[in-house]
Amino acid sequence: MADVLVTGATGTLGHRVVPEATAAGHKVRALSRREHVGYTGVHWARGDLLKGDGLDAAVDGIDVVVHCATQPIGSKDVVATTNLIAAAKRARVGHIIYVSIVGIDRIPLPYYKTKLRAEEALAASGVGHTVLRATQFHDLIATIFAIQWFSPVLWALRGARFQPIDTHDVATRLVELIDTEPVGRAPDIGGPEVHSHADLGQMFLTARGSRRKVVGVGLRGKIVAGYRSGANLVPDNPVGTVTFADYLRKDE
Ligand SMILES: NC(=O)c1ccc[n+]([C@@H]2O[C@H](COP(=O)([O-])OP(=O)(O)OC[C@H]3O[C@@H](n4cnc5c(N)ncnc54)[C@H](OP(=O)(O)O)[C@@H]3O)[C@@H](O)[C@H]2O)c1
After folding, report:
1. pTM score, two decimals?
2. What string of pLDDT tens digits covers the 252 residues of the chain?
3. Do 103 and 232 meet the contact criterion of CB atoms below 8 Å apart?
4. Can you count the helices (H) and strands (E) in the chain?
5. How far is the centre of ligand 1, averaged over its atoms, from the C-alpha of 238 (Å)?
6. Ligand 1 within 6 A of 217 CB?
């Protein structure tokens, strides 16, 4: 069993990884910028990946880091990952596992470009690492629909398809990787089903009992073209077990 640091431990994904890694028998330390209580039995480390504060103490004695922290603004994730790598090197951490996103090299979203640079920093670091790219989380797809709650119709991107995955399924895969040797890049993972954005919107409305209509919006540009090309999908590795409809039922 390993001593594991989870960054982003309070986040949408990280808060799933912490209990799952603990249940698998690992000794888990959870990183946050804030002082924490909660998650009984979890040891919290306070640290800021951008400023570098608290990182040496956070990685001290750690075998594996599961890096889930993110701040999707500018180059912050590159700085944060570079600071984490430096601290991991000083502490001789053997393995950093980094969660990334399917298609970041083919869809020119600014956030994706930053994730790619963070991946590259890891690849050049000399620290044992594994990059796991996952498709969009159910939470993200649902949030994009939820913020349109006061719109008379639900807008969906015409021609785009998604293969959303549950954070429990991503956490399960990350915890499996704790027990493996660093592989550089693990096979990408996706959810169990591929649906058009419009179909996912209809599932969302049905689950919420709304009679509004889904309306396809046809946007142009390289980012949208990337999604339309299916660069965000992994139909050959649908490892997720929870469908979007299952997720919506649980969320009711
Ligand atoms: N959302 C998706 O659909 C999706 C799909 C595939 C992959 N991913 C990747 O999965 C990872 C996790 O995403 P998420 O949605 O779970 O993120 P999230 O909910 O936004 O959580 C972000 C976490 O990062 C931590 N954090 C932010 N800035 C920090 C800093 N300077 N120092 C230390 N911790 C910091 C926050 O902790 P505190 O506030 O407690 O400090 C928080 O726990 C990301 O790398 C993302 O790119 C996401």
Report:
1. 0.97
2. 999 999 999 999 999 999 999 999 999 999 999 987 666 678 999 999 999 999 999 999 999 999 999 999 999 999 999 999 999 999 999 999 999 999 999 999 999 999 999 999 999 999 999 999 999 999 999 999 999 989 999 999 999 999 999 999 999 999 999 999 999 999 999 999 999 999 999 999 999 999 999 999 999 999 999 999 999 999 999 999 999 999 999 865
3. yes
4. 9, 11
5. 23
6. no
